[in-house]
């Protein structure tokens, strides 16, 4: 079997061609010159050809050395590519994925999504941050997270997005609320004129509601709270009506603890989105997560 040439010797040969002397090539490779000379002589014996012409003025390549140096450059480039690929695999094995999710997504969807993702990528260390939708978009735009999930009706300029789920907001009240006994639906004007328990400014739920009622003058909220769970608890306690995601109140509607109120002419359907910074093609574990969600989501 032919003995493989020493890569360091090939690098020295290319260095002689680049720098015009063996001494300069040895310094560039951080090899003592006597060791460099022995390495090149060993390469010449191995290949059966004189590669370097040595003289008082320095060293230069022979015609045979020039040919070998040409192929050595390509071989060394391939080896560097191999090392880069191996390094990428090493990084991938210890990859980190930082995700930011708005409250509704974090409470009702992201645990299932991340659980499925971990089943196929248990090598990825995942960190989840929970904010309102505006804060999620800020974290994505600033590069503090790899991908965000939001429930707002719009996405800021400069961010890419894709639909990952659909949701609907509903008006909910406690069973004792007067609206439960009404025979006719509440009108949009009546809803707009009623003080509500609402999420804080910047949340996707609040933004969707405000856009739907932007034509009306509205009273101050009964309460302004920082999570859907807190809003739901307030409604359960009889504080007043609220507009919440069906994801947040489905079980309570089924049990009768909360009642859904029809509002005539009001459509509060919304799209939940993954958002990220350019480029458009989301790569790495974040891209894998989003593609998995899109591929398996229910229409």
TrEMBL record:
Protein species of origin: Rhodococcus zopfii
Residues covered by the HTH lysR-type domain: 5-62
Record bears the keyword Lyase: no
CDD domains: PBP2_CysL_like
Name of the molecule in the record: LysR family transcriptional regulator
Keywords recorded for this protein, A-Z: DNA-binding, Transcription, Transcription regulation
Record SUPFAM superfamilies: Periplasmic binding protein-like II, Winged helix' DNA-binding domain
Protein family according to the UniProt entry: Belongs to the LysR transcriptional regulatory family.
InterPro entries in the record: LysR_HTH_N, LysR_subst-bd, WH-like_DNA-bd_sf, WH_DNA-bd_sf
């Amino acid at each position: 079997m032919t003995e493989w040439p020493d890569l360091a010797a090939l690098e020295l040969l290319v260095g002689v061609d680049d720098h015009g002397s063996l001494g300069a090539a040895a310094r560039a490779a951080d090899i003592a010159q006597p060791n460099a000379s022995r390495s090149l002589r060993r390469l010449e014996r191995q290949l059966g050809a004189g590669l370097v012409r040595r003289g008082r003025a320095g060293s230069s390549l022979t015609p045979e050395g020039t040919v070998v140096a040409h192929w050595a450059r390509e071989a060394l480039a391939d080896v560097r590519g191999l090392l880069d690929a191996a390094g990428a695999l090493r990084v991938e094995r210890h990859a980190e994925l930082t995700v930011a999710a708005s409250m509704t997504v974090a409470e009702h969807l992201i645990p299932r999504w991340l659980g499925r993702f971990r089943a196929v990528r248990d090598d990825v260390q995942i960190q989840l941050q929970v904010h309102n939708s505006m804060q999620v978009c800020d974290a994505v735009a600033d590069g503090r997270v790899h991908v965000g999930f939001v429930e707002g009706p719009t996405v800021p300029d400069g961010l890419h997005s894709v639909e990952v789920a659909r949701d609907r907001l509903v008006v909910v009240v406690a069973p004792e609320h007067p609206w439960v006994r009404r025979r006719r639906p509440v009108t949009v004007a009546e809803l707009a004129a009623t003080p509500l328990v609402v999420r804080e400014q910047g949340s996707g739920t609040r933004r969707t509601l405000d856009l739907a009622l932007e034509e009306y003058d509205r009273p101050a909220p009964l309460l302004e709270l920082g999570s859907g769970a807190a809003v739901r608890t307030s409604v359960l306690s009889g504080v007043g009506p609220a507009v919440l995601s069906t994801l947040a109140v489905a079980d309570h509607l089924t049990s009768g603890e909360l009642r859904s109120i029809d509002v005539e002419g009001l459509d509060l359907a919304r799209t939940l989105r993954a958002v990220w910074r350019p480029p458009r093609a989301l790569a790495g574990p974040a891209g894998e997560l989003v593609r998995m969600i899109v591929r398996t989501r229910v229409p």
